[in-house]
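Internal tracking record. Fields below are filled automatically when a chain is submitted to the structure queue. Please do not edit lines marked as system-generated. If the sequence contains nonstandard residues, flag them in the REMARKS field before resubmitting.
Queue: standard
Priority: normal
Entity type: single polypeptide chain
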Amino acid sequence: MVLTFKINLAKITKPPVWRRVTVPANFTFNDFHSVIQWAFGWTNSHLHYFSQKPEGLDVVIGDPTDHEWNDVIDSTKIKLSKVFTLGGQCFYYVYDFGDDWVHKIKLQTVLLKKSTLEKEEKLKM
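SYSTEM-GENERATED OUTPUT FOLLOWS
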């Protein structure tokens, strides 16, 4: 199964800054962090977390060794498929706690087979 997300910088609207990424559903949130870093050209030089709200502090997924919060879910142990199950679901990725680059992550599609993804890509060409 593969998941396609639209990820946009929440506080930048003119022009909007966004990326579309497709990743395996069995990726961990740590893997997804690496994808977002690459897609936006970030340098992985700041702390980050994933959360259901842009301000966090409800369900926080990240690196437990990087945060002083007690209830951080380890991003290396939770797969995207455990959180993202329906198209339209949103989550947030916050990078750089000083500048607070808030990324809104919206699940656009869930494809069940890799062959379906390959067919979809061929149709776009």
